[in-house]
Amino acid sequence: MTHYLVNFLLPALITAGFLYGIRLMQTPHTALRGNRIGALCMLVAVLLVLWQYGLFGRPMVWAALITGSLIGLRMAQRVKTIQMPQMVALFNGLGGAASAVVILACLNLLVTETWWFGWLVSALALAVGSITFSGSLVASLKLEGWITSKPMFFRGQTFLVRWMLYSTGALAVLAVIDKSPVALYAVVACSLLYGVLLALRVGGPDMPVIISFLNSLSGVAASISGIALGNLLAAGVGALVGVAGMILTQIMCRAMNRDLLSVLRGFKDYAGSPETDNTQAAVSGDASSEASARLTADDIPRLLREAHKVLIVPGYGMALSQAQQAVKDLMDALEKGGKEVKVAVHPVAGRMPGHMHVLLAEVGVDYDQLFDMAKINHEFAETDVVVAVGACDVMNPAAASTEGTPISGMPILKVSEAKAVIVCNLNEKPGYSGVENTLYREGHVIPLWGDASETVPEITAALTQQG
Amino acid sequence: MSLTVVLIFVGVCALLGYRIISAVPPLLHTPLMSGMNALSGITLLVALASLKTSGAVSLLACTAVVLAAINVVGGYWVTDRMLRMYKRGSGKETEK
Fold it and tell me: Domains of chain B: which residue ranges?
């Protein structure tokens, strides 16, 4: 009876606790409690294992636990909000590594002469864990800027990546059939290399997809290691994480109009972007500019003064120039003038899902003012002024009008429908996709080139002087 | 624990997880992901358990414990930090 209690009932209860915690994450005002419930469940689970296996008196166990906890704590306290994506990527990698290492530690238990299943799950856990580790590490370094964030291509890379994946699979099969430990180690080596090659090919804006995907893999690795070693809790909860990562991957892919396979294959498009149909786009741009007189920077005070509704469109550029506070100040100034202010967020505006929301929350922007693309896109037509800060590709009309570019078919924020648009970008160069933004040529668009942390306060100043 | 039970449990968790996680709004996607990230450190349990099992290489198992503990503690802490930043009502008072 106790056996049943400890091995099934308690893990099931703890899992229910985790699920309840995630459920609380559905609304912002309960999310903090949800996360703490999750942490508490984790603590209970750890204590349960320590008690179950009589590990309380082992100094080595405590040393390992405390070392890990202190390192984790220190990292979590020091990280800045803009670095959150690389932090998450790094933690992902550590989780994957832990799953692979635990399998290595228990290898002589798992791989016996008779039990083929042990070989299979070992090979799988090692492969997934290793890919997660090396892939996440490279992704993290790319986000931190230690490796160029552009996709890296070299001759024969596609061939090599594909070959690595196939050989990982083949070696895993060999390990199961032949029961050869050497093949298992080879699986680790191939998977590590595959993870590196995979992440190297993925560029900046596609990071949300790859991070979500690696997040999913880290869960899958934990789940498989749980299955392998008969740990119900790890198996179930790992699957939970795997599913969560998959859902986010799917959402990110849909937001970019891509499928996961094309992301994993890497974006050759970025390296040699096909010629965009500039003439056609230019014609449509000129038509609108000739109809009404072109707006200039001098019009900004008047426009803002007369505006009733203002939408803010943030992009990753806002994070790069650290203009969040300036944006918040502008929003406050606008609201003081009695205007309706909302923030329109594109799903892939940052480097990870929900990145813009966190950045703006940090400077005190009310989360009621943050709206997702699907909810706000119809409101641009009734908007007087749009202030875009460091956003480019997510509002490029060329996504709809051109074909064969990396952003073709990507749903965009319909910024152009607003009566006036102020663009606070560094320069008029195309966004990451390399596709020229035809929006800049339209008559009702006022570009303010320069560092957004300087140009946005200028707008605020123009507004307050008038008011 | 029989393998069948474990696999069924995995299936149930995946299904329930799918239903619950799908309803999390984009506003909370970053905290969700970092929270899930912390949760993937659940391998910590496997690593701890393996320290007791005879035949497991304890140095490797300890390494796994350290890695997973970083993942768990760091992940939860960072999520907590983020969620504390989400607030509502700063603008509400002026409207009233």
Answer: 3-87
Please name the residues between 33 and 92 in chain B that touch chain A, using a CB distance below 8 Å: 33-53, 55-58, 60-92
| CB-CB under 8 Å, B37 with A215 | yes
DSSP state of A114: S
A365 forms bridges with which residues in the sheet? none
Give me the torsion for CA of B65, B70, B76, B79, rounded to 10°: -150
Min Cα separation B37/chain A (Å): 6
In this structure, what DSSP letter does residue B53 have?
S
CA angle A418, A390, A301 (to 5 degrees): 50
Element (H, E) at A310: strand A309-314
pLDDT confidence of A316, banded at 50, 70, 90? confident
Task: Report the C-alpha gap between A455 and A449 in whole angstroms.
Answer: 8
Give the fold, CATH level 3, of A287-466.
Rossmann fold (3.40.50)
Q: What is the largest CA-CA distance in chain A?
A: 83
Distance to chain B for A447, nearest Cα, Å: 29
- Nearest-CB residue to A105 (from B26, B39, B60): B60
Cβ neighbours around A336 below 10 Å, total? 12
For residue A336, give both structure tokens: 């003081």
Q: Are the CB atoms for B26 and A372 separated by under 8 Å?
A: yes
Question: Per the structure block, which two tokens stand in for A434?
Answer: 């390399």
ipTM of the assembly? 0.89
Burial of A59: CB neighbours in 10 Å, binned 0-12, 13-18, 19+? exposed
- CA–CA gap between residue A191 and residue A165 (Å, rounded): 7
- Signed CA dihedral, B50, A135, A257, A319: sign only: positive
The DSSP annotation for A55-110 comes to -TT-HHHHHHHHHHHHHHHHHHHH--GGGHHHHHHHHHHHHHHHHHHHHHHTHHHH
Shortest Cα–Cα distance, A442 to chain B (Å): 31
Which whole-number Å values give the CA distances from A360 to A25, A284, A398, in the listed order?
19, 34, 28
Annotated active-site positions of A, please? Answer: 393
Q: List pLDDT tens digits, range A317-351.
A: 888 888 889 999 999 988 888 889 999 999 888 88
Indicate the angle between helix axes B58-85 and A355-362, nearest 10 degrees: 60
Q: What is the pLDDT of residues A407-445, one digit of tens each?
A: 777 888 888 888 888 888 888 877 777 778 888 888 888
How many CB atoms lie under 10 A from the CB of residue A346? 24
Read off the pLDDT of residues A274-289 as tens digits, 9 standing for 90 and up. Answer: 444 443 444 344 444 4
Residues of A in contact with B3 (CB under 8 A): 117, 227, 230
C-alpha span between A244 and A183 (Å, rounded): 32
**Selected residue of A237, A343, A359 to mutate for chain B interface (largest B Cβ count, 10 A):** A237
How does DSSP assign A399-438, residue by residue?
HHH-SSSTTTT-----GGGSSEEEEE-S-SS--TT----G
Reduced to 3 states (helix: H, G, I; strand: E, B; else coil), residue A16 is helix
